[in-house]
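User: Hey, my collaborator sent me this sequence without any context and asked if I could get a structure. I don't really work with proteins. Can you help?
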Amino acid sequence: MDFTSFVPPASVMAAYSLACFILFATPGPDMSLFLSRTMAGGREAGIASMLGASLGTLIHTVLAAVGLSALIAASPTAFLVIKIVGALYLAWLALDAIRNGSALNVRNEGAREISFMRVFWLGVMVNLSNPKVVLFFVTFLPQFVSAADPFAARKLAFLGLYFIVFSIPLGILMILGAERVVTGLKRRPQIMRIIDYLFAGIFGAFAVKILLTEGR
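Assistant: No problem. I've predicted the 3D structure and written it out in structure-token form, which is a compact way to encode the shape of the chain:
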């Protein structure tokens, strides 16, 4: 099997991995869900919510990869437009991270027993009901694939699956240290601001690079 048919070059994977890490580390609805479920129902509940959100992300990425692959086949020009719009969206996310900061909302509900499957499906629904997730992946994945690549469809699917595989171990580590994570972030809000600026710097740089490259 020729791995180059679905695995992007090492330089692209390095940039994508960095983007995935910054995206994971930026507090938002998914992180709030994982941490709140862990604080309320223990580590099992936290892992259940994370696995549910991962299934939701899988559905989003598969749909995005299939839709983008069809777009490439139908119109490479339209795919280029998506990339440019995506770059502008990433630039807006970078600006928004600096202006408004991260969203971490972990409510103290007290410890109680929670059904694994109930929390799992809660994770799925929270992820699927967030329109920003599909918008992000539709604009994010194309930045690492060229419309001229004959294996673009395979690489889009690989990148989507890679994000999930990359995030799960990090999610488990976060859940295992949930109490410390919540306490640390609440006591030191400057940590979240540092993450905001990292997010803004990385995604702002991606946006500038894409606009300069595709605009020529």
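In plain terms: The chain is about 80% helix and 0% strand. You can pass these tokens on to your collaborator as they are.
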